[in-house]
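This section describes the prediction task in plain terms. A model, or a person checking by hand, is given the sequence of a single protein chain and must write out its three-dimensional structure as a string of tokens. No templates, partner chains or ligands are provided. The sample shown here is typical of the held-out split.
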Amino acid sequence: MGLNNSNKTINTDRIDCSGSFKVTLALAASPDISSHPTDIVLVLDRSGSMAGSPLTNLKNGAKKFIDIIDEATDNTQDGNIGSGSRIGIVSFAETAVQNTQLITSVDALKAAVDSLTAGGSTNHADAFAQATAMFDPASANAKVIVMFTDGKTTAGPDPNPVAAAARAMGIVIYCIGLVGADGIDPNVLNEWATDPDASHVAVTPDDAELEDLFADLAANISKPGATDIVLNEVLNPDFIITNVMMPTKGSATVLSQTALKWTIDQLGTTANEGATLEFFVQHVADTSGTKLVNQSITYTDAENNQATFPAPTIEVDCGVVVQPEPCPVPVEVSIGGCQDSLVYNVGDVYLESLGRILQLDVNIKNVCPDKRVALAVILTEVDQQGNEFERGMKTITVPAHHSPSCRDVLVKCIKFILPQDLDVSGGTPFALCNARNFKVRIFAHNIDFDFRCCNVTI
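The expected answer:
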């Protein structure tokens, strides 16, 4: 039966900014039908919209399905479903009928298929109910329903709960859909079928393709488990893998901080079998929000089984994050030979939410009314090797302005005294005309804010 389940879960739906959580990958597979007896019920739509070529092609497809299962169970088309497996037929229109019980006679099964005639509305709920009732709960055989339909439900109750109850009993549901006159909704088939949809649902607009769809499905059901499995998982870059547990089957290799590979030689080749891989993931970004855990996940095996995995999301709460900005880029300032004074405009500086930034002559941008500004200027002198030597720091309170709107404020004439005996620029010692090189760093922020503690007068 090949791969019959693939899943991905996480053990929580919310973490803090640097929080961790566990991811579980799961696979399940079943052996081929010759060594793993299976009861299969073909559920066939014979409503009025199936009249003509759709019903003819449906019959051909169903009979080909029976032949393939016949051969798969005992390696020959001998007219008998072997190895303990059985097939039953249910057909439906406004109501459903058990056209056969679970039997092994290929002739009897084909005769039941050939006897179908089209007419009436479409009652999917009764079809699922009649198919489910055909299985013996005490039987150890695997249980499969193959639902074929070409239209929407037009009679009876909602079929979703009936299909869900069948799946809960361990019945695997496959759906084949023909886009017929009643306008089938593929999403409904996905709801009825066992996950993953990619390997349990097939839809075609052309009834001539029904024979091939039934043949492909029969081949899938008779597959010998899954071999040479390779699963590649790549995380969203906001997360990293911190620890990988030993898988219950196969081996796991960490490819990078955000990627791993899980390989399994064989799964479900001799009996129903599952495998899980658990690994731990930590959030390493600094932004909050609902985030996808994985960026991609791919699956391959030698039998070309198809696997789809859920894409879990997790809520990350980083609270209020302050991003310290790097030190400002220094402005290069040089005093030429024999210059005893220098006026140098070192440009604009914008108010920052953190740090105190100012320059010798500086234009502070967008200072709002009634807000004082704190400024700091750090000056260093640079020697010929690029080493910096502290030459002082000045802090200044810029008075608030009372203009009706935010405006720029120009601060002028911030003075530093630079004793000549501190000259590290080289040249003649203590010579007044030596060139000296400096770097200036400026910081600025508002002093005043609107916050007041309760019951406190400021």
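For orientation: Confidence is low (pLDDT under 50) at residues 320-325, 352-359.
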